[in-house]
Amino acid sequence: MGRRVPLRGLALAGALSLALPGVVWLCYDLHGAWVTLLIVAPLAFLTVLAGEWIAQRRPGGLRRQFALVATLGVVALAVGVALFVSLMFLSSHDALMTVLLAIYAGALVLWLSGRVASRALADVDAIRSTLAAVGEGRRDLRVAPTGDDELARLGRQVDEMIVRLDREERARRELFAAVSHDLRTPITSLGLLATAIDDSIVDEAKRREYAGRMNTHVRQVAALIDDLFDLTRLEAKELEWTMDRLAVHDLVHDAVEAMRPAADAGSVAVRADVNGSIVCSHGNREQLSRVLFNLIQNAIHHTPPDGSVTVHVEDRDDGVEIEVADTGAGIAAEQRDRVFEPFYRGDAARQPPGAGLGLAISRAIVEAHGGSIWLEEASVGTRVRFRLPAYR
């Protein structure tokens, strides 16, 4: 029943129809109040019903709806003034002035309604045309609204959505290109090696050598596929881990010792620097070790011989921060915002080993633990720092 009859609107009309005569009664007399009630009550109820019909049926476009509402208000004003003049005014001079003031107010209401409606509808048209163009594949358009009303905020949200969509599509294209690039080399090599093995001219020793190379390429492709699968599940929050209380200093020392042979092979010094009474964190030891392995391995790879890699651990308010710092060439300023993107590797770093997923996976793991990861400013080399919440 409430959907068909505008109960709230009728209640408002009834309240106004009683309030206005009540004021007249207090200020003048009962007869004036009664006449006022006879005039305003029908007008109020009819106006509410007509307005509700416009709101429910929504005839035509918004321009027509705004015009109907403005016209309805002016008609209600004109009829009310006319009835008051005919029933309650004794002076023709006062009646004429009242009519003129009503016409003046109605004209202003119509003009102001038109101005507000035209600005609002211009924003609606801009949003509609922009979304239509975006649906057709364009990403260079913006609503660029003015003002601070709801439509302006909606327009700015649309612009932000277009920027995010463009960025995600670019990242997706770069991802496909990077996957193709990183798969093409081992697959091409596998094809050539398979052809060579199948060639009867190749002796048995060469076949065994080629089979070993094929096994290396197969492991490379399998590692890439595993990393892609893990990254996809991490970003989709589909992985569930056992979360335990972790002693952060033990986690760091174990990771440093595990990576020491790789550092020694590259003549790079690696050490742990644990400051203060390090708090415990809460997380999955295997996954957080994977983060440290990725960061330390990446630092070793980009550090020249006789350089160093240091893993700092520090207490922070309600958490602990771990930093992997190296003495390599560092990261260019224009690349800093993209180093955590999948497959992104700077020009100087786009060399084996790795497919450029280590930092992306590390970020996903850290964020899944409720932490954050970022690049610190460094005068020498690179400093990657991540924060984990304290154990509660």
Automatic annotation (TrEMBL):
Residues 118-170 form the HAMP domain. It catalyses: ATP + protein L-histidine = ADP + protein N-phospho-L-histidine. It holds the Pfam family HAMP. InterPro entries: HAMP_dom (IPR003660), HATPase_C_sf (IPR036890), HATPase_dom (IPR003594), His_kinase_dom (IPR005467), HisK_dim/P_dom (IPR003661), HisK_dim/P_sf (IPR036097), Sensor_HK_Regulatory (IPR050736), Sig_transdc_His_kin-like_C (IPR004358). PROSITE patterns: HAMP (PS50885), HIS_KIN (PS50109). It is an enzyme of class 2 (transferase). The keyword Kinase applies. Gene3D superfamilies: 1.10.287.130, Histidine kinase-like ATPase, C-terminal domain. CDD domains: HATPase, HisKA. SMART domains: HAMP, HATPase_c, HisKA. It comes from the Bacteria. Its EC number is 2.7.13.3. The chain crosses the membrane at residues 7-26, 32-54, 66-89, 95-112. It is found in: Cell membrane. Residues 178-392 form the Histidine kinase domain. One of its GO terms (cellular component) is plasma membrane. GO terms for molecular function: phosphorelay sensor kinase activity. SUPFAM superfamilies: ATPase domain of HSP90 chaperone/DNA topoisomerase II/histidine kinase (SSF55874), Homodimeric domain of signal transducing histidine kinase (SSF47384). Its main location: membrane. This is histidine kinase.
